[in-house]
Automatic annotation (TrEMBL):
The lineage of its organism: Eukaryota, Fungi, Dikarya, Basidiomycota, Agaricomycotina. It is found in: Mitochondrion outer membrane. TPR repeats lie at residues 132-165, 367-400, 401-434, 469-502. PANTHER family: MITOCHONDRIAL IMPORT RECEPTOR SUBUNIT TOM70. It holds the Pfam family TPR_11. Its main location: mitochondrion. Belongs to the Tom70 family. Residues 86-99 have a biased composition (Basic and acidic residues). It comes from Ephemerocybe angulata. Residues 72-85 have a biased composition (Basic residues). The chain crosses the membrane at residues 28-47. Keywords: Membrane, Mitochondrion, Mitochondrion outer membrane, Receptor, Repeat, TPR repeat, Transmembrane, Transmembrane helix. InterPro entries: TPR-like_helical_dom_sf, TPR_rpt. This is ADP/ATP carrier receptor.
Length: 612
C-alpha cells in the first residue's frame, strides 16, 4: 500500500533495515534468512522455494571411514561433494557410519547367510557382529541396484542379529522406505525415531525423519527436525536450509489463510493510518447542500473526525452516513471514497475496490479514487492495472499533483528510480508545498546513485519545511545508510522533538534512533528503550514491534522474540504481512524447540550465531 504513502514506506523501510542489519551482522537466529523482509510496498515478497529434495547421505564402501553427520564429528571429503550411486535420483542414498563397537568387515565371505533367526541368536557376540556387517553390506548392494525392498530386508536382518543396536541400520532402512512406491512415511519416521534414540545428534536420521514427517503433513514436527539438522550441521547444508524455508513457507501460508478467514477486521496502528492519509494533499472542504439530509450531516461529522485523527470514529460515522443516505453526488462519492480507503486499510481489498469504483462511477473525475484503486492493484501485485488507473486519472485532470506523486511511488517500488524522480519533480512543479514529493525526490536520487543531488534536495527541503519532522527523519535514514551515525541520531532527535508537540506523534523517528544507536554503539539497551517509548505512544506500531523482536533475537532472548512475533502476527493487516510474521514466529518456535531438546548446544549456538 505504500504506493500511496511515503511515510508508510518509511514504516516498512525501518522494519526491513533492522531485519537486514541483524541478519547480516549478527544472525542470532539462522532462520531469519528464510523469511523475506517486508518490502517497500508494505507487501512481503517471497522467493520460490519449491525445490526438489536432494539426497541425504553417503554409503560407506566398507573402508571404515566415518561419514557421520553428528555435531562436531563430520569429516569433509576433499572435493566437498558426497558420493552418490548413479541411479539415486528418486530419493536419499545411503549413509554409513563407523559403529561405536568395532565392526568386523573382513572374513564375512564364509558366513552362512541362510541361518534362521534362532540359529543366529545362538551365535557368539563377535560372530553376530560379523553377520550384522555382512547383512548391512548386502543391503547396501541391493540399495545401489535400487532393490529397495530387498535392501530393507537385509537391514532388518542386521538389526535383528547385531548384539549392540546401531543407529545406521535403522537410518539406512528408513532410506529404503523413503524410496518405496509410494513411500512408507510411517515406517520412515519409526525407524528414524529408533536411530535418534541411539544417537540424538544423528543429522541424516533427523533429515530423513523430517522427510517422513513432511510426507505425513506433520509440518511443525518436520520443521523441528530440519531446524535441528541445520544447526547441528553448522548451517553448511544448503539443502536442509532450503527445506527449512520450504516448510516454513507452507506452514505460514496455510496458517495465514485460515486465520484470515476467521479474523475480524481491525484498523492498523495510528502511525500507519496517519501515514496513509498524510500522503494525499488536503482537499477542499465539502460544502453541504442547502437542505442537508441526516446522512449528509453524518458525513460531515465523519470528515471532522478524520481531520481530528479519530480514525475509529470516522469509520463508524461514514458507515452510518452511507446507511442513512446521502443526498448529492459529490457527497456520495466522498463517502464511498472514504469508506473504500478504510476498507483498504483493514485489508478488505475487494471491498475497497468496490467502494472506490462506486465513487468513480458517481463522479468520474474523482482522481483521488483512481489513485487509490491503483494502490489496490499494487497490493494485489498488478502494476499494469495500477498504471492504467494513473493514465485515466491524468485524462480526468492532468494538473492533479497527487497523481504524479503516487505514480512515482509505484515506480519507486519497482526500483525505477529515475522515472520515479521525474514524477516526484512533476508533482512539486504543480504544487511545491507538499513535503513528501520533495522527500521522495531526494530518496529516489539517492537510490539512483546521485548522492550529491540527493543531499542538496534534502537540505533545501529542511530549509523549506523547518517545522516538519519527516525531512529530518528521512535525511537521518540516508545518513544512517552512509554510516554517519552521530549526524543521523541528531536528525532523528530533532524529528522526535517536533513530533512531541503534536497530539498524536508519529513514532518512526524513535524507532530509527534506536536502530541507529544499535548499529553505531551496539547499545541494545538504548535501542530497546526507544522502541518501548514508541510503543507507549502507539502500542501497535509495526516497526517498533519488529525491531524489538529482532533485538531480542540478537541477544538470544528467544522467548521474548517469540512474544513479539506473535504480536506482529496479531496486528498484521493483510495476508502477506501475516505470512511474514508467522514465518518468523514458527522459525523462532523451532529454535526454542531445538534448545529444549539440545540444551548442551545453547552456548555453541550463541557463539556460532555471533560468528556468522
Amino acid at each position: 500500500m505504500a504506493s500511496s504513502s511515503s511515510t508508510d514506506a518509511a514504516t516498512s523501510s525501518v522494519v526491513e533495515r533492522v531485519q537486514n542489519f541483524v541478519s547480516e551482522n549478527k544472525k542470532a537466529i539462522l532462520l531469519t534468512a528464510a523469511a523475506a523482509a517486508i518490502g517497500a510496498a508494505g507487501v512481503a515478497y517471497y522467493a520460490s522455494t519449491s525445490r526438489p529434495r536432494p539426497p541425504l547421505g553417503d554409503v560407506e564402501k566398507g573402508d571404515g571411514s566415518d561419514a557421520s553427520s553428528s555435531s562436531g564429528k563430520k569429516k569433509k571429503s576433499k572435493s566437498g561433494k558426497k558420493k552418490k550411486s548413479k541411479k539415486d535420483d528418486s530419493g536419499p542414498i545411503l549413509e554409513e557410519r563407523k559403529p561405536k563397537v568395532a565392526t568386523v568387515s573382513e572374513g564375512t565371505d564364509d558366513l552362512d547367510l541362510e541361518l534362521d533367526a534362532e540359529e543366529l541368536a545362538a551365535l557368539p557376540e563377535e560372530t553376530r557382529t560379523k553377520y550384522a556387517a555382512a547383512f548391512k553390506g548386502k543391503g547396501n548392494t541391493a540399495y545401489t541396484k535400487r532393490n529397495f525392498s530387498e535392501a530393507a530386508d537385509y537391514y532388518t536382518k542386521a538389526i535383528n542379529v547385531t548384539p549392540k543396536p546401531e543407529p545406521v541400520f535403522y537410518s539406512n532402512r528408513a532410506a529404503c522406505y523413503v524410496n518405496f512406491n509410494p513411500p512408507d512415511h510411517e515406517k520412515v519416521v519409526a525407524d528414524c525415531d529408533e536411530a535418534l534414540k541411539l544417537d540424538p545428534n544423528y543429522v541424516k536420521a533427523l533429515n530423513r525423519r523430517a522427510v517422513g514427517l513432511e510426507g505425513l503433513n506433520r509440518l511443525e514436527e518436520a520443521l523441528r527436525d530440519y531446524t535441528a539438522a541445520t544447526i547441528l550441521d553448522k548451517f553448511q547444508n544448503a539443502a536442509t536450509a532450503n527445506a527449512v524455508e520450504r516448510v516454513l513457507k507452507e506452514i505460514a501460508t496455510t496458517q495465514a489463510t485460515e486465520l484470515m478467514k476467521e479474523r475480524r477486521t481491525k484498523l492498523p496502528s495510528h502511525t500507519f493510518i496517519s501515514a496513509y492519509f498524510a500522503a494525499f494533499r488536503p482537499r477542499p472542504e465539502l460544502v453541504l447542500p442547502v437542505n442537508p439530509s441526516q446522512g449528509d450531516e453524518t458525513l460531515q461529522m465523519a470528515l471532522g473526525a478524520l481531520g481530528a485523527a479519530n480514525y475509529p470514529h470516522a469509520l463508524s460515522l461514514v458507515n452510518e452516513a452511507i446507511t442513512q443516505g446521502i443526498s448529492w453526488d459529490a457527497g456520495k462519492a466522498e463517502a464511498f471514497n472514504l469508506r473504500g480507503t478504510f476498507k483498504f486499510l483493514v485489508g478488505d481489498i475487494d471491498g475497497s475496490k468496490s467502494d472506490l469504483q462506486t465513487a468513480i462511477n458517481i463522479v468520474p473525475s474523482s482522481t483521488q479514487a483512481l489513485v487509490k484503486i491503483a494502490s489496490v492493484h499494487m497490493e494485489q501485485g498488478d502494476p499494469a492495472k495500477a498504471f492504467e488507473c494513473f493514465d485515466e486519472a491524468i485524462k480526468q485532470n492532468a494538473n492533479d499533483p497527487d497523481i504524479y506523486y503516487h505514480r512515482g511511488q509505484v515506480l519507486f517500488i519497482m526500483s525505477e528510480f529515475s522515472q520515479a524522480a521525474e514524477n516526484y519533480l512533476k508533482s512539486t512543479e504543480l504544487d511545491d508545498g507538499f513535503v513528501f514529493s520533495h522527500i521522495q525526490l531526494a530518496v529516489a536520487q539517492y537510490k539512483s546513485g546521485e548522492t550529491g543531488e540527493s543531499m542538496k534536495t534534502f537540505r533545501r527541503t529542511l530549509t523549506a519545511f523547518p517545522q516538519r519532522s519527516e525531512p529530518q527523519n528521512y535525511y537521518g535514514e540516508l545518513l544512517l545508510d552512509q554510516g554517519r551515525f552521530q549526524e543521523a541520531v541528531e536528525k532523528f532527535e530533532r524529528a522526535i522533538e517536533i513530533e512531541k508537540t503534536k497530539p498524536s506523534p508519529n513514532v518512526l523517528a524513535l524507532v530509527n534512533k534506536g536502530l541507529a544507536l544499535f548499529q553505531w554503539k551496539q547499545d541494545v539497551g538504548a535501542a530497546e528503550q526507544c522502541c518501548a517509548e514508541a510503543l507507549e505512544i502507539d502500542p501497535e506500531c509495526e516497526a517498533a514491534i519488529a525491531t524489538l523482536a529482532q533485538l531480542n533475537l540478537q541477544q538470544s532472548k528467544i522467548k521474548n522474540a517469540m512474544e513479539m512475533f506473535k504480536k506482529q502476527a496479531e496486528i498484521a493487516r493483510t495476508e502477506p504481512e501475516l505470512i511474514n510474521a508467522l514465518t518468523y514466529q514458527y522459525a523462532t518456535a523451532s529454535q526454542l524447540e531445538f534448545l529444549k531438546n539440545y540444551p548442551n548446544m545453547a552456548a555453541q549456538l550463541n557463539a556460532l550465531a555471533r560468528g556468522m
